[in-house]
Here is the input.
Amino acid sequence: FKCAWCATILMLSFVDGKTWQNGFFTGWDGVTVGVLTSFTVKGWSTMYLLAILDSVLKNIGEATSVLVIYFMQVFLPAFEDTFEIPKFLSVMV
Here is the structure.
């Protein structure tokens, strides 16, 4: 299923024409690369934990990682340092 999904996305990127002509990563900045990196690391670490731990501990680990990502966004100087309840709750869902 994942191979079919990747193939579909790849084919759709060729239909546009501009994506590969301008370069796939055109318009990406440091924040975008940081988000991609954080979610890649989260995905790999989740799969590693899934192989080792049971599902309850995996869910606890994912919830902890969501909290860490949220609090990093709140406390890093590049972002606003206000605690926003609606944003926090949307991340927790």
